[in-house]
Amino acid sequence: MTQGTPRVAGRRLPGPDELRNNGVVKNVGEARENPTGTPQEELATGERSTRNRVARSILDHGPSTVAELAERLGLTQAAVRRHLDALAGDGVVEAREQRVYGARTRGRPAKAFALTDCGRDAFDQSYDKLAADALRWIADREGGNEAIAAFARARIAAQAGAYREAVEAAAPEQRTEALAKALSADGYAATARSAPHPQKGEQLCQHHCPVAHVAEQFPQLCEAETEFFAELLGTHVQRLATIAHGDGVCTTFIPKISHNASASTAGRNPA
Asked: I need a labelling partner for 264 at 20 to 30 A (CA). Which of 66, 112, 114, 192 fits?
């Protein structure tokens, strides 16, 4: 797992070099606590940057108290608490009782703030590279290409239940739309629309592909998905474009079929 350029709530977090620019952090804190006429948009950007630095500091140093973060980043404790409250509200950090070794002193121990699983996931991971390396290792073995294709089909089959349930519950003329909604629930941002004239049918558009980087190297993933769409919808379908191939959207053409044909094939299991 790498600890590269992170993102929180869809925003890029600064890298390690930026995070150690404490002079910038001090200026941001002073600007927020002592307004100097700086445009509000710049102040908001500074707030986000400092908040990201707080999260990165916890990642680099482990669970930290308010005092530790304030000293490390050159901020006041009040500023640190404000940023921690915002990060906690986003589910990025959580407060924990600090573990005390040796004799306890009077008073309650200071709370330490740690990243949640969600917070760690906001930092860049190397899952795509790990998956691609694993598939490449398989592909380099005898019969590797066939094994990759079998894996791709098995992966689709493992996900098929929710898609099949959604399609079979829909009226025949609404099955492409039902499939699009089920795909969207899995992060594919899919839509269904009528195909442009003179084609007779629909287009299933996936505006996002969670496995696009791996599929660039292993098109068997796209091919297995296309085969599954055909089986599920009960008709031959045609892949017109894929994000993995460099297109802006994965587009699948689904020809118009008779309702009887779709009803007789929608219940089959994927190969």
From this structure: 192
